[in-house]
Specification:
This protein has nine helices and 20 strands. It has helices at 39-47, 93-98, 106-119, 135-151, 170-186, 198-204, 222-227, 232-237, 337-342, and strands at residues 5-11, 17-23, 28-32, 54-59, 62-65, 78-82, 158-162, 191-194, 207-212, 215-220, 243-251, 254-259, 262-265, 277-281, 287-289, 303-314, 317-323, 331-336, 350-355, 361-364. The strands form four sheets. The protein has a six-stranded mixed β-sheet with strand order 6-7-8-3-9-10, with helices on both faces.
């Protein structure tokens, strides 16, 4: 694929790695996983700052690494954005961006750097040094410098971002995410993002790669990974707490799930043979609270009654923890705070919910 980044890395020491993915021009791939899972190491290998024992890295048809060959960082068309900006404090915003333009003719560097600053909405601030800029402005300078490096010259480049927005406040973070989303439409380069923030990954990424101890456990669209994890391990890593076990059955010719003395309807086909013991997961949005003040026809689908053990108000939504008879693991979901108050629901109260069949996802037993 012209312009694509292809990554395959394997090693046992000093940090285990076993991952492979590709990223097309204009695509954003997010590497997610807990601290120490190898996300930053993968990024550093792509940039040439680390070298894996085995594997290959190719970009736009050029080989950057193949186990034997390993191009130095300056020969790779890589723009890097770090969470701590990494700007040189004694240089202006313009000069910091110009550092990335070594392959651009000297007579064009000032105009090119100013163009990149303008594209991240910093026109007029090119003479300011980092200390004279806000955190969000500094991160925009870092982004402009990285984009200038990735897009400079004739060879295909890649933009690498390591927790780029974690050091700024929430409002600035949202604006920077929006800025990146706009720039993606204009830039035909692969983008690899490392983030701990699953909401950020869901909003920005075309695909997620879930890493754990250096191993890629699953790769797919945010919807595939966050709603249909391939294993209980991935479900836990992406924060899906409603993880249970049950047995696949058949009722009236349709698949069902025997769980905690109940029989839950499943979407057909479920892909598991009757009698199979499975793990299953349902995201919080797959659990619907029955509202006594506003009954719904959907309440007939997998109805369930439990006792509320915790109600955490989080602004307009309240997170409810429901104890289910016959099941040690509680069910966690959200409902509008208005509904909770109106129906006087809280700890110790009984609550009725629906488990949407289309949201129940089965996995091989752990």
């Amino acid at each position: 694929m012209s312009g694509a980044l292809e990554v395959e890395l394997r090693q046992q020491l000093p940090i285990p790695l076993d991952c492979a993915f590709d990223c097309a021009p204009g695509e954003l791939v997010a590497l997610v996983g807990p601290s120490g899972s190898g996300k930053t190491t993968v990024l550093r290998c792509i940039a040439g700052l680390n070298r894996a024992a085995q594997g290959a890295i190719r970009c736009n048809g050029a080989t950057w690494f193949d186990g034997e060959l390993s191009l130095p960082p300056q020969q790779r068309r890589v723009g890097l954005v770090f969470q701590n900006y990494s700007l040189l404090p004694h240089l202006s915003a313009l000069d910091n961006v110009m550092l990335a333009l070594g392959d651009v003719p000297p007579t064009e560097r000032v105009a090119t750097a100013r163009n990149w600053l303008a594209r991240v909405h910093l026109q007029g601030l090119d003479a300011r040094r980092p200390a004279q800029l806000s955190g969000g402005q500094q991160q925009r300078v870092a982004l402009a410098r990285a984009l200038a490096r990735a897009a400079a010259g004739t060879g295909g480049g890649v933009l690498l971002m390591d927790e780029p927005f974690s050091a700024v406040d929430q409002v600035t973070r949202r604006k920077l995410r929006e800025e990146l989303a706009r720039l993606r439409r204009e830039l035909a380069i692969p983008i690899v993002l490392v983030t701990h923030d699953l909401d950020e990954a869901r909003q920005l990424a075309d695909r997620l790669v879930v890493l754990h101890r250096g191993k890629a456990l699953q790769s797919g669209t945010p919807e595939d990974v966050l709603l249909r994890p391939c294993s209980p391990a991935v479900a836990r890593l992406v924060g899906l707490s409603n993880l249970f076990s049950g047995t696949v059955g058949i009722e009236n010719g349709r698949p069902c799930l025997d769980w905690a003395g109940r029989r839950l309807a499943l979407e057909s086909p479920c892909g598991c043979a009757p009698g199979s013991i499975v793990n299953w997961v349902i995201p919080p949005e797959g659990v619907l609270l029955h509202r006594p003040d506003h009954p719904s026809r959907g309440e007939a689908e997998n109805p369930l009654t439990g006792i509320i053990t915790e109600a955490l108000r989080m602004g307009s939504f309240t997170q409810l923890t429901l104890s289910i008879p016959g099941e040690a693991q509680p069910l966690v979901f959200q409902a509008s705070s208005h509904t909770i108050l109106r129906n006087n629901l809280g700890p110790g109260q009984s609550a009725n919910v629906t488990l949407l069949a289309e949201r129940i996802h089965l996995m091989p037993v752990e």
